[in-house]
Design brief:
By secondary structure, the chain is α/β, with parallel strands linked by helices. Helices cover 47% and strands 16% of the residues. The mean pLDDT is 96.
């Protein structure tokens, strides 16, 4: 499936050290899973987590969910071993934390070979170097690490995330310029459905492809927010039909709901329908 059309609405963090969580993840209606060997695993569990996760991925059962493994940084005592282990795991991609520059990606690629790489974008230097990071030939996606980024920037919490908007925008621009997937950061208050809806709406409006989640209770809201709505699908169909009819009749301009429909609108409409069909296919599977 074309990565641009593959759904990445919900991307759930799962601790790589917890067999029960790894088992439950096989049944959750998420589009992708980040199997975490970093923040979610205590120092004395790192080695065991690596083996537990390798066994779980070898066993399979995750269906069409994209399997991404977040390793520890290469500058930590565990990063090198993580990278070597992921190279031999049944994973779709490796996620590198705190990426500051393309050189960090080079260092990982020297170990993991041609395995697609995702970058945690969570440092001020990473924001400033987002374009060069996105342009790396093995880079497949950005994941916003908004908690770490807010700490580094010394921002205050605001529901509108205004202090983070510049950083979010820089990473979106870099990701879209290179055709990467861009995933928004987590929403920490996992029992606050109203706040989650608002942040999902903001992220979707900005252009993010989906959102990282810390709890399965957030999946339903996030899937709905990042899927094409019924109104969007209906409008897309009508735009395509009107444009094709106008072309067939040799007329000049197609109009839907009082607005001109041009080639770019039709291209967007076809993407919306393709994304909706991909979501339907995933749910059926």
């Amino acid at each position: 499936m074309d990565q641009r059309l593959r759904p990445y609405r919900s991307v759930l963090y799962i601790p790589g050290s917890r067999p029960r969580a790894l088992e439950k993840a096989r049944t959750l209606p998420v589009d992708a899973i980040i199997f975490d060997l970093e923040d979610a695993v205590a120092a004395d569990e790192k080695d065991n987590a690596r083996e537990t996760l390798k066994d779980a991925l070898a066993q399979g059962g995750y269906g069409e969910r994209v399997k991404i493994v977040r390793i520890n940084g290469l500058d930590t005592p565990w990063g090198q071993a993580d990278a070597k282990a992921v190279r031999d795991m049944n994973a779709d991609a490796v996620l590198l934390p705190k990426v500051n520059a393309a050189a960090d990606v080079d260092a990982l690629a020297a170990i993991t070979g041609d395995l697609p790489i995702w970058a945690m974008m969570e440092t001020p230097r990473g924001m400033l170097n987002a374009a060069q990071i996105a342009a790396h030939p093995l880079m497949a996606g950005f994941v916003m690490g908004t908690n770490d980024l807010a700490k580094e920037l010394q921002t205050r919490f605001r529901p509108d995330r205004l202090p983070l908007i510049t950083s979010l925008g820089l990473c979106l621009l870099a990701a879209k310029a290179e055709g990467l997937i861009a995933i928004d950061g987590v929403y920490n208050a996992f029992k606050d459905d109203e706040g989650l809806v608002a942040e999902c709406t903001q992220g979707r409006d900005m252009g993010f492809d989906g959102k990282t989640l810390i709890h399965p209770a957030q999946v339903e809201i996030t899937n709905a927010a990042y899927a094409p709505s019924e109104d969007e699908v209906d409008l897309a169909r009508r735009q395509i039909a009107a444009f094709e009819e106008t072309e067939a009749q040799g007329q000049g301009v197609a109009v839907v709901d009082g607005k001109i429909v041009e080639n770019l609108h039709v291209a967007s409409a076809r993407e919306i329908l393709a994304k909706a069909e991909a979501i339907t296919a995933l749910q059926a599977g």
